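Technical annex, item 7. During the second reporting period the consortium partners agreed on a shared format for inverse folding records so that results from different sites could be compared directly. Each record opens with the tokenized structure and is followed by the designed sequence. A conforming record, contributed by the partner at site C, is shown below for reference.
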């Protein structure tokens, strides 16, 4: 079988810059997914249309939720899976309320204000540089795509029972100080995901590839080795 392509699926208000400091460690072809369809299934179909063949799906937050749906739709194409800073459970009522509130403010022209209120939940110890990286990604996403992402969040379902069907090398990573997706979310995902490795990163928040890029690069490189080990040397036969 051909080596898989690494499909990098960002979280809400994030783009390819989320992975800039980790993708060099992957040693496989990389495709950056764009997620802005107004449903989780639509997002999964959107990212699947971007690449053919076997996939190593790497998703953060909303991106991992899309990854769960990719694995449900086409399990035969998923050769590996990494779920970072995410939640496999169905949304809580207060989450639906928060997304509706953000959508109303965005439609009213206060997208920048919403971004500033979301920003403190992205990092454990934000620096000016990290804050600006998030603002830059959010500005590139813009209000129209953000509204599509909020609509998709509202279509989420409980993915925990389906985790057992993802029987490929897997990685589950959470930040110990993640205000949105705390460690217990990741313990639960890893417990239901056969073949998974769980890593809880001290001193890290939600946007792991930006806050602790060296750690995430090393973990993803290890997953690549589990999914696409070096080809065995071919032995020559005597004539």
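Designed sequence (site C submission):
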């Amino acid at each position: 079988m051909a080596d898989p392509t690494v499909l990098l699926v960002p979280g809400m208000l994030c783009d390819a810059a989320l992975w800039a400091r980790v993708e060099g460690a992957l040693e496989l072809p990389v495709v950056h997914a764009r997620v802005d369809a107004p449903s989780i299934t639509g997002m999964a179909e959107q990212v699947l249309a971007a690449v053919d063949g076997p996939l190593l799906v790497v998703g953060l937050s909303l991106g991992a939720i899309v990854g769960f749906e990719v694995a449900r739709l086409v399990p035969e194409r998923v050769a590996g899976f990494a779920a970072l800073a995410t939640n496999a459970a169905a949304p809580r009522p207060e989450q639906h309320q928060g997304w509706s509130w953000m959508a109303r403010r965005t439609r009213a022209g206060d997208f920048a204000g919403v971004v500033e209120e979301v920003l403190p939940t992205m990092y454990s110890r934000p620096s000016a540089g990290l804050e600006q990286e998030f603002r830059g990604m959010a500005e590139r996403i813009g209000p129209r795509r953000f509204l599509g992402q909020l609509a998709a969040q509202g279509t989420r379902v409980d993915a925990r029972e389906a985790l057992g069907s993802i029987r490929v090398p897997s990685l589950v990573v959470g930040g110990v100080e993640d205000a949105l997706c705390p460690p217990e979310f990741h313990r639960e995902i890893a417990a239901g995901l056969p073949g998974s490795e769980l890593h809880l990163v001290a001193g890290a928040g939600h946007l792991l590839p930006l806050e602790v890029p060296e750690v995430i690069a090393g973990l993803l490189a290890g997953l690549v080795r589990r999914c696409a080990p070096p080809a065995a040397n071919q032995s020559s036969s005597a004539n």
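Confidence is low (pLDDT under 50) at residues 232-239. The longest helix spans residues 128-153. All partners now use this format for quarterly exchanges.
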